[in-house]
Amino acid sequence: MIEPTKQGIWITGASSGIGRAAVFEFARTGAKVFASARRADELQKINESLKNEHAGIDVLPCNVASYQEVEQTVKKITSAHNINCLINNAGITSFKRAENNSIQEINDVINTNLLGAVYAIKSVLPYMKEQGGGTIINTISVAAKKIFLNSSIYAASKAGLLAYTNSLREEVRGYNIKIINVVPGATETPIWREEVRNEKGDKMMKAEDIGRLLVWLYNQDGSMVTEEIVLRPITGDL
Ligand SMILES: NC(=O)c1ccc[n+]([C@@H]2O[C@H](COP(=O)([O-])OP(=O)(O)OC[C@H]3O[C@@H](n4cnc5c(N)ncnc54)[C@H](OP(=O)(O)O)[C@@H]3O)[C@@H](O)[C@H]2O)c1
Questions:
Q1: Atom of ligand 1 nearest to the CA of 14
Q2: Is residue 1 a part of any domain in this protein?
């Protein structure tokens, strides 16, 4: 049975960092949160700690690099609920010179950051059209817009997703589907090596601040949509 009264929010990359923070922030609004990542144990820990203050979340382990897993996850969610919002947040990096990236690393970054998000979008679009609208929020990166050394494959994955979603937005305007691209700079999460976090963590943005912004972006109403928002630490890029 569909529970249309609660907003259904599907967050990928929910086991850590920005996605994890978003799970807490959305759950506190009373939304129905579907949390996906590969590590089911980490998602379950989040669920346990939220149960103390809230009804909990739905844990749906899913590797976004697998179209089959993405499709199955969307089927599970939509069998009982609407997907009002998809947050495409799952992501990995490889900070190396281009020639030093292995083929495996190249495939993993593109398959997760670009194709994973494309698979999730392709899978939710028919449901969003049928339910009369929806919101798709993508965690891009300033690396899609500014040149950083040792980031070529990561930059390609994020610039690819930016181009894909900017084109998609034009296709879905008539269906009440909002496409919001969030373009963050350095944020203190486990995506950074521990030495970097120890040395530069105090100059980075906090995942919780981005989590709260995602809730705000989703909840903005009226006649407008924030199509793209660039976020940087106050002191600038690292
Ligand atoms: N931190 C920054 O400075 C920064 C800046 C700009 C943009 N971003 C972007 O923000 C997003 C979140 O990153 P974060 O900083 O929060 O890093 P993080 O703490 O490492 O979180 C990454 C999340 O993605 C999940 N993930 C990775 N591969 C996956 C896969 N194949 N399928 C499903 N989930 C997968 C991880 O969970 P599992 O390992 O459990 O699968 C984890 O939950 C990423 O897209 C990243 O590129 C981060």
A1: 43
A2: no
CB atoms within 10 A of CB 209: 14
Residue 177, domain member (yes or no): yes
**CB 120, CB 88: distance < 8 Å:** yes
The CB of 16 under 6 Å from ligand 1? The reply is yes
Q: pTM value?
A: 0.98
Residue 213: name the closest of 21, 34, 55, 49 by CA. Answer: 21
- pLDDT tens by residue, 123-176: 999 999 999 999 999 999 999 999 999 999 999 999 999 999 999 999 999 999
CA of 223 to the centre of ligand 1 (A): 32
Task: Please tell me the distance from the alpha carbon of residue 220 to that of residue 203, in angstroms, as a whole number.
Answer: 29
Pocket test for ligand 1, best of 73, 191, 206 (most atoms within 8 A of CB): 191
Determine if ligand 1 sits within 6 Å of the CB of residue 19. Answer: yes
For the stretch 156-168, pLDDT in tens is 999 999 999 999 9
Number of folded domains that form the chain: 1
Ligand 1 within 6 A of CB of 233: no
Would 3 be classed as within a structural domain? no
CATH number (domain holding residue 120): 3.40.50.720
Domain that holds residue 36: 8-231
